[in-house]
Amino acid sequence: MPREITYREALREGLDEEIARDENVCLMGEEVAQYNGAYKVTEGLWKKWGDKRIIDAPISEAGFIGMGIGASMLGIRPVMELMFYSFAYVAFDQMMNNAATCRYMSGGLINCPIVVRGPANGGTNVGATHSHTPENIFANMPGLKVVTPSNPYDAKGLIKSAIRDNDPVYFMESTVLYGMTGLVPSNDELEGGELIVPIGKAKVAREGSDLTLIAHGRAVVTSLAAAEILGAQHGISVEVVDLRSIRPLDEETIMESVRKTHRAIYVEENKPFCGVGAQISSMIMEQAFDDLDAPVLRITSADAPAFYSPPIEKLQLPNADEIVARALTIC
Amino acid sequence: MASKTANPSTVPFADAPINASLTGEQKIDLLRTMVRIRRFEQTSLKYYHDGHIGGFLHLYIGQESVAVGSISLLGEHDHVITAYRDHGHALSVGMGMDECMAELFGKKTGCSKGKGGSMHYFAPDKNYWGGHGIVGGQTPLGAGLAFALKYKGLKGCCLCYLGDGAINQGAFHEALNLASLWDLPVVYIIENNGYSMGTSQARSSAFPKEGLAARAEGYNMAWAKIEGVSLYEIRAGVQEAVARAHNESKPTMLEIMTYRHKGHSVADANAEKYRTKEEIQRYMNEHDPIEFWKNVLIGEGVITEDDYKAINKEAGAEAEASAAFAIKSPYPDESEIFDDIYWEVDNHTEAGRTGRHFFHG
Fold this sequence. Notes:
A: Rossmann fold; 18% strand; B: alpha/beta
């Protein structure tokens, strides 16, 4: 029987299994070991695996992420936690120059099998510095992969794929989703004995025929809620496509859905300017123009830094009502 | 300042065990490597001015003893990483002139297939991890190479080179903290040539009177300052740090005093403005590591002036041959633009075939 576990537990299971599978996999980050993780994703892993595999790093993102990149060149597979993905900006040179371009500049002699994971979301009243959503920024860089699981099943399957991947994978989670529960099969009921979700394969999270909502990360959850309302209250059949990864991108699943429904809205918690939706809507326009019955819309976070005041910040993020209202303008 | 001529009985550090054990042939090899680096770079400069080489060209002329002396101490599990003034280290680890010259010319036969250029030489098969363009950016990577050695239980170390201009980058300080905190077998070698591009040390760095490396005190790390004109002194000083890394898994910060005879890069229009001509000439006369070592070896009776001339001639011919090789080599194909970005794509794996990786056109 599939079990109902949280997104946080699913990630932890994935990490635990990969640590057991490969002696070169180690976790490092601020408070990941003895403190059990700032968001408890790594809870219990230090007790189980000890100092060698689970490493508390000082508050020193450029240092320990750069160190992990260097170690990966010699075959270590570090999984590095950013307490908030916003802190990636402190390590930007290491993440953009060293991890992303060493392979190219060495003519393919080097690869960096690292994972940098952590929550990349707003909506928790922690102010602008802790609420960044850099998925579009990192996905802009060839050489990097950007993964954004929206549910516990994908969180487990994708983190395992990310760790096995031989390229740098930037794995963006959500603090709002950590407590979300979902069905995740236990290994003994799976063919092959483990849950693997390939990077680069989108999922049709809900089938429909009138409108496609395309989303990544937590915006998938919001889109599914909007789809319910649109179906129940407006008789509109909505398909929801969960990208799961932004780069590599499953464009076939997107185009297939748009060709079926003829209408598309990109929903994301990223900012609008040069956001992921800008890329996707451009691709839809180029590849499925004749199939469209309406312009492709984009619903994003407000184009402003994150507001601290809780009731106002809530208004900055996409919500189901906004999606419904925008959908009704094109359906 | 070391004198131009050396008397073997008074050359400091000649009797250090690591030097006393050198055979005459090994001493000649060290000379040959320094001369090859110089001739390689002099040749590259000529072709740069002729328009064959693009971008930057940061020459190592005057500093050759630092890479040659320190890298000569390394063994199977020892690794090297440096910044953008990387030609000397590359030839010291055993990379060939052909692949290095062709890289400058942007050719397919270059060590990085023409994708990296002067600042980005790599040879992982020779434990050489670059060649890094961002000042100080390689210093956490050096800690990481050392971390990997320790993780795998290998007795080795990483020599991580940086210029005196890099010591003020935040990433370097983070790396120092991690290296000391976690007892990583890394040796940071500050090649102090006195200038971070056109800004002198006095105008760029705050440091104790003992020198830049004394900053290591703040990280509870061993350090030493070494005069860099003599291979004997460099080898003796670096060997202590390598032994500390191998035997105690402890880091060291070394400051090796040196001087670049040329500008920051070939494009440095002010190379003789922020330094006086007299200063440059003085160092060229008195702090030329090749001239110094040649005189040591003549003084020891290991070589004659004629032997040196033969080595110099041979190195010059090798450098010219490498330029000829570079000239006749093809440029990369346009189709290679999308190679060497993702390991999974290059290796045609299932992951590399899943999803769209490139978005042009």
